[in-house]
Amino acid sequence: MDAEITLRVDGQERTVTVDTRTTLLDALRERLGVTAPKKGCDHGQCGSCTVLLDGRRHLTCLALAVAHDGAEVVTAAGLGGDEGLHPVQQAFLDHDGYQCGYCTPGQVCSAVGVLDEVRAGHASHVTRDLDAPPGLDDDEVRERMSGNLCRCGAYAGIVAAVRAAGEAADRTAGGAA
Hints:
alpha+beta, 5 strands, Ubiquitin-like (UB roll)
């Protein structure tokens, strides 16, 4: 059975007809030509397909497109703007947070989500003091980014990039997360 859905992808409203069994990843890549989210494992284990879905990081290979009719989807390609790269994208460049680049769009979207979660005060499994605002030390970054795998092993650069973007956001926001 087919269904017509509308998605706002990287700021542009898009309408597409999909089979009701179509994943959001396949709708984006194969029906709408949006190739920033990558198909890695297709089982929700690698994070290559991560996007920001209605403001939160989400694995698109595990989501049915019809369940997200009307949703706002932001991919790594839609993060920057007329003024240039998003601060997380710039941090990945500055800290060599990539090698082959296949996982990078998912890593970047996940990092943006991580920073939003920290700013909102959400604790992680390794947060030491649940009464204090969460910090962003290496352990926190590793735990929060653990759903995004890098076959090349660029983890040191990824952790450095996420921390640098978080610190830059702190300076800009006057110390909030």
